[in-house]
Records
---
Amino acid sequence: MDKISITLPNGKKRSVHRGTPVNQTVKEIFPDIYPLIIAAVLDNEIVDLSTSIEKDTTLNVLTSKEEGGLKIFWHSASHIMAQAVKSLYPETILGIGPAISNGFYYDFFLNDSITETNLLQIEKRMKEIIKEDIPFVKRILPKDEAFQLFEEKGERFKLELIQDIPGDTITIYENGDFFDLCRGPHVPSTGYIKYFQLLSVAGAYWRGDERNAVMQRIYGVAYTEEKALKEDIQAREEAQKRDHRRLGKELDLFSFHPEGPGFPFWHPNGVILYNEINQYMREVLQRKNYFEIKTPLILNEALWHQSGHWDNYKSNMYFTDIDDQSYAVKPMNCPGGLLIYKNSAHSYREFPLKYSEMGMVHRHEKSGVLHGLFRVRQFTQDDAHVFCTPDQVEEEIIKIIDLIDEIYHTFKFENFLIELSTRPNKSIGTAKMWNMAEKALTNALEYKKLTYQINKGEGAFYGPKIDYHIQDSIGRMWQCGTIQVDFSMPDRFDLEYVGPDGDKHRPVMIHRAILGSVERFIGILIEHFGGAFPVWLAPVQCVVLPISEKVHDYAHQVLNHIQKSQIRSVLDIRNEKIGYKIREAEIKKVPYMCIIGEKEKNNKNISVRKRSEGSTGQTALSSLITEIRDQIKRRMHY
RNA sequence: GCCGGUGUAGCUCAGCUGGCCAGAGCAGCUGAUUUGUAAUCAGCGGGUCAGGGGUUCGAAUCCCUUCACCGGCUCCA
């Protein structure tokens, strides 16, 4: 028998017989971690451990510690779940069951409805399957044979999938009497899935299309170690504790009411956040030479025909009549802004001309997608439109990138993911314009040495764009900022400027939003900070806590000083023990507590306690005020 | 919009296999206590059981319906 050569991760070579199963080799090379190994990597291709090695190759292995390994692990868990469901509900027709970023799911079509209580039974059946330690066996079948196999089982969704798969062969994976269409790879046997938990059930359309059948989706997660599963469940609970809907209630920031589904009601504490953010944005934009504008909420329908929203966005718009004329509530700010631009003649000397608008827009979202502040029907965009010459585009994009960077850092977002979306199939504008704009965006990103991902063909029909995703303190990504070049609006509104040659030219228009929706951004901030806002944003920045009634007079004086220093502060003169008042201030996440007893009164000073840090001892009132003022002024992260 | 679930006091929840006046904790109010760094004690008030309709001698509980909210609705075998 002939020998072949295997190159190991450390560069060493080893020769084995052709056709040796990879698991045998892996067992010899990685004896200590062998039980944790889920799959092998031959020449950068992830394969089952049962695969035979047929040619010279490099060899590496994957455990559930690596993302790739974990995905395989989850995918195998989803097969086991499908097997369990199929055995409990034999009439089940299978959909798809992939691993996703934080676990796995499987879609089932069945007449019985699965509820959360059924999950326990399914888990129990899964445990039995895992205990039996059934091997996952890969089989490669001719397409027609596979088709027949699934047809006999009545697996109509699988038939659809098979038809869409290119090539002549199909792979399936069997474990015991269960088999499933699957590209693989898988863990060697069901016994590998040691610790798992089913999380939730939900409805989902087949292939995500509402015209298709409704499937029942079960979500779950699995790990090789109990500790990892526990940590995952704990992280999910932690995320729930930070849920902005819950904190919004607890901190009395906002509410929703049946009288206006999707329309947030801002309470006094929430308005403070809202106003502080707006004020900060105004300060920055003024420094960057933006001019703030404000345009009406309701504008004549004709404008929306001209802008193209009537054709492309009508189903998301609200309409009303005024004096027998049809009007629309604005879903976007640009058309109004363009009327201001067109109100006067413009010269290249004014460029770049930057109009910013904290514009309140209304968009009709389907009732089922509303979600706290994250998905609402009324929100405020931190919108801006930059009018410039084609030569200025790149430089303007760079300036916007710098601006975005500055603003995100102020809110303690340190990691971003940037996407560049290029020309889609259906688009307007000439190839020359698109090339110019895409090049300007690319050059700007390259100039700033930013890493970005290209989404080919994902741009808007009217121009290419850059999207920003920000990472919050518990690792989740949120799409917020966007920079879009627009070829459509300047044409539709016949925008002009007079160039140095004295002729009229068409300006380039750049849309950009940094926070995106202020409402949604506040929701993200609430979860990012877990309600413990930096001092400059905190609705109450300092609470004065007198220990007994004997010092109320002094406490009032202290409060007075603090308030005069423009620090948002309150006095808690309730007839309660100091521990009680402190506890409440901690729960309300007030950053500074100013504690006053007879000692402080006699010493003419105060005691300071910082949120979640504890007592920092007695100090002069003036030094506390200076510290807080400094935090506010510099908008420190605390 | 669709699928599934939930809706009881300001908040968190119990009661829900139909039948004593619908309960608890927290919050609120009143009083006592005058307090030293995450909950002092006692008393009091508070609910059209989401809205509407039905079944029944009798409905928070069963059925229908409307509304709102929650989990989701391709991260592609």
---
Amino acid sequence: MVECIKCGEVGTISKAGKVGKKQRYFCKHCKLHFTLPNKNIAPRSELEKKQNVTIKDIAEALQISFSTVSKALLGNPVVNPETRKKVLDMAIKMNYQPNLIAKTLVKHTSNTIGIIIPSIISSSFYPEVLQGIQEILSEKKYTSILCLSHESYENEIANCNQLINNRVDGVLISITSKTQDTSHIKQFEDKNIPFVFINRAPETLQGSSVTVDNYLAGCKAVEHLIEQGCTRIAHIAGPTNLAFSKERLRGFCDTLIKHRMPIDMSLIVYNDLYTANSKECVAHLLNLSHPPDGVFVYSDFIGIELILAAKEKGIAIPTELCVVGMGNNPVSSIIDPQLSTITGPTVEMGKIATELLIEEIETKNQKFSNRLLDVELIVRKSSLRNESEIK
Amino acid sequence: MVECIKCGEVGTISKAGKVGKKQRYFCKHCKLHFTLPNKNIAPRSELEKKQNVTIKDIAEALQISFSTVSKALLGNPVVNPETRKKVLDMAIKMNYQPNLIAKTLVKHTSNTIGIIIPSIISSSFYPEVLQGIQEILSEKKYTSILCLSHESYENEIANCNQLINNRVDGVLISITSKTQDTSHIKQFEDKNIPFVFINRAPETLQGSSVTVDNYLAGCKAVEHLIEQGCTRIAHIAGPTNLAFSKERLRGFCDTLIKHRMPIDMSLIVYNDLYTANSKECVAHLLNLSHPPDGVFVYSDFIGIELILAAKEKGIAIPTELCVVGMGNNPVSSIIDPQLSTITGPTVEMGKIATELLIEEIETKNQKFSNRLLDVELIVRKSSLRNESEIK
DNA sequence: ATTCCTATTGACAACGTTGTCAGTAGAAAA
DNA sequence: TTTTCTACTGACAACGTTGTCAATAGGAAT
């Protein structure tokens, strides 16, 4: 039945196993193993082919070698200006679009960075940071792969691997509130992939970072509350494993100590994740037998909850209770009374981190740099007992 | 001075031009052209090398061929289960991470999609859409490249080219308010790259899309205002070249006509970009000699501006003026009075669009599908004249 | 006319995979 | 023992670039 694809004989053929699902044959005469060729010839030339023009297509069109085309396209001075012009014209005429994938493979640089952030809808914070990042990226002709960890440690690990597999040149990362072990991030170091922490940095791993001065934030908030005459000052603190929470708390405590005021542990409560136990935190403070008259809240969102709950209970703000939040959420300036807040430069933060990262990528600089950005107190009605003090 | 790298002679050498900046020589005796080898030998083996383990490293460690390793890693049943196990173990031991770049080059699919959106900080809309997109992407093991067009037509073109050059498998795009010509998007079609419009779709190009039912939004808003007893109903409309603006306007007009109410052109104003001339729009309506008693605003942001301006002028809301916005911005439920709004499912929109796109990618389906998502009216104080009507 | 040399072009090996097919040892069948 | 035949493994050509180096035509110098 089957005849040899070389000599055409039929009698000399015997079966010779399978490759995948395809029967193989052996011709005794030619000592040749073979499989029957597929019937559908050249399916590629019909539809699939010529989706993209390559350097070789240009070379063929111009009857020159493809390496000359490559050089012309790269502006290499060894090529004759005339041929360069011809190549450039033909490239435009044929709508040539360079394959960055192939380029990455040979150059070992992708001009792509990875971005890992825990969330994009919890507040306007990360969108603003992203805005800053993208501004610099498009200026420097970089591309970005965006990953959301959704505050999950497992996702964060998966994201890191995904970025490594996609051979990014560098990574901007804001760790989850659950990240303790950092070996997945350490991988970047092993592979010489620079990374910069944004906003949230782990305490257990050395690395470049761009964060706001959270210690100063705690100080400024408490200083302001003391100025307004508060004497029992409380703090709703953030997740304890995040450095920024600790720093704000440290600023909070140090400032109280500086003013020789007692630190009452019952006035410090911890919110474990953005809104998980926030209601309990707020209720705890308001229901104390000896409640606070001033609160520094680590996030505007919970500050707003506090204001709403206090209004509900008939507690007058700011006369009975002053509130200072952090983050300058758009809502804060719209709520009644408007919420005082500590704010850092968010868009700027994205920009600075990206510039830092790209510099590390391009200079192969090994040294870490840690940038601390200044914070600002925006005084609004929620903490202003003397209206005339508004500047 | 220079001796032939082959025969070692000195007298037979003559110069032979340059290649780049490097001097070349010619040996008459051997008829050989050559350049002097670089002094620094194997700089790669020191630092640069072995950043990443490859399939060949595993093959060498196991003393088998790299194609067998590849097959083992891919789970190809032709490899012996024993060798597969050996390979898998060694891959883990050596911390092998597959190079997706190389894979993309040979497979012509990157498992990456491009996302082009006009903005990420103008409202919570796009972050929410992104959230939905990312949820599906991580579920389906896809990666995304994020591009912001910043409402600029030129940027949008650049973004499209960037995505093509990065060989994405598909694109999600929300066009800018300025996009008229769509040839840059048509490119995707030419290259067989599926794309899905999110929220904003051009009128001049056929394509899959996922949008909210903007016509219905206009209808619902006006129906509600009429129910509340409004008789002079105004509309602040969005950019005129965006289909969604036109649809909302069409719903607005049709509903007025349906109720046999006149359409007063002085009550329809156009906002050309998010906040560009919004103040003028608001002022125009409030300063009319015969002002409206109900307004449907195409965006919550401008609805809020309207409320603030009306309060400033002492116009009572909702008794003298009812306002309905669109977008359900978080601020809308916090402002006083709370703003009624029309809202569509934003996160859902991102999910549906992404599922649609991935389906088009994986089935190579050529047919376009246009999904219209239902909108919902959230009634709040800004448009509720009879308090008891709250359900 | 002969030699030298320069400007330009071409050939080819990477890069790290996948997939096709050829080759082989040795078990099963004769 | 000889002849099938099967289960594996290996070689190698893609994929679209970049970069290194060899080759060549023909002008300048002798």
